[in-house]
Amino acid sequence: MDIKYYDFDTLIGKMYIFFSSKGIIYLSLAKNGAINIVNHVNKKYGQTIKTEKYQYNFHNQIIEYLKGDLKIFSLPLDLQGTDFQKKVWMELLKIPYGEIKTYKDIAISIGSPKAYRAVGGALNKNPILIVVPCHRVIGSNGKLVGFGAGLDLKQRLLTLEMNSIV
Questions:
Q1: Per-residue pLDDT tens digits for 123-152
Q2: What sign has the CA pseudo-torsion 107, 124, 71, 151?
Q3: Residues with a known catalytic role
Q4: CA nearest 7: which of 50, 60, 64?
Q5: CATH code at 83-164
Q6: What are the sequence ranges of the domains in the chain?
Q7: Maximum CA extent, the chain
């Protein structure tokens, strides 16, 4: 698989976006450093090729979302994972902007009501930060839990969405 990537600046920091001819495979903040991100993606998906962002426009929607100006993404995705993970991630894409669900809600929605821990595992492996909105999933007790990019960012994204609803 031919995977390209580039980095871009956002209101929450530098991000890296990796994509195939089908769509986005991986989106991450650069908090662990560019080399670590590229190495991780190379190991998981195969060799990557750095390109220039001016050749692509995937980042524009992410930047608009983070400014509160975009509520629905129309980006092509190339989800890579197990069948269960992809089922969970596809369910996350159905959560409307500004709404939240629990892990249990997602488990019920995919027809596996007792698999809420497995749903949490799938969210933990979500390769496409923000676009596949795992930040919209909270614990059954209403608390923010489990977000790879940090609970501060999860709260920030939820607050952005709650404040942008018109």
A1: 999 999 999 999 999 988 888 887 778 889
A2: positive
A3: 134
A4: 50
A5: 1.10.10.10
A6: 3-66, 83-164
A7: 45
